[in-house]
Amino acid sequence: VFAILSVLSVSSPLQAQTRVTGRVVGADSLSPIRDLQVTLHRVGEKNQGPIDSTRSDQQGRFRFVFRADTSAFFLTSARYAGIEYFSQPVATNPARADTGVRIVVYDTSSSAPVLLEARHVVLTRPTETGSRGVLDLLVLRNTGRQTRVAPDTAHGSWSGSLPEQST
């Protein structure tokens, strides 16, 4: 009588790698922006922050390979003229690389037009003294091809009035 002992080794398959490629381009002519640091960010409930970085090449291209998970989404960013510009969230299907990521960067101006698109004022219940807490939520729209920045360090990039009788 022969006994055959078979030992099976069960190991979990390696988690598939997600591949993301894209380009950094200027808004004016969609020309490539080279030699910018591009950062891959993870945004999840428990963990968030940058997870990798690279530099854009002569054609503005960049590439990341990483292990994605379903508890987070991922996006890329690049800093241009002191402003951080973000991509849309990247697709994380390991079977299909996301090759269409694009980060569009803009020149800056302290006089680029900015419009107040919406204003939402939320009031709390009155306190014993009759005062109320106020949340003033403003939505601004930049309709131009330049990012609005402050003219100097002593002024803001946009200002508006508070409601009357605010303290």
Quick overview of this protein structure:
This protein has 167 residues and is mainly β. It contains no helices and 11 strands. The chain is flat, with a radius of gyration of 24 Å.
SS-derived structural category: mainly beta
How many runs of DSSP E, i.e. beta strands?
Answer: 11
Shape: flat
| Proportion of residues in helical segments | under 10%
Would you kindly provide a written description of the structure presented here, covering whatever features stand out?
By secondary structure, the protein is mainly β. It is 0% helix and 46% strand. The chain contains no helices and eleven strands. The protein has strands spanning 18-26, 37-44, 48-55, 61-66, 72-80, 83-86, 98-105, 107-109, 114-123, 134-142, 146-148. The strands form four sheets. A four-stranded antiparallel β-sheet has the order 3-2-5-6, with no helix packed on it. A hairpin with a 3-residue loop joins strand 2 and strand 3 (48-55). The protein is flat and about 60 Å long. Mean pLDDT is 87; it is low at 1-13.
Describe the protein's topology.
Elements: E1 18-26, E2 37-44, E3 48-55, E4 61-66, E5 72-80, E6 83-86, E7 98-105, E8 107-109, E9 114-123, E10 134-142, E11 146-148
Parallel strand pairs: 1-7, 8-11
Antiparallel strand pairs: 1-4, 2-3, 2-5, 5-6, 9-10
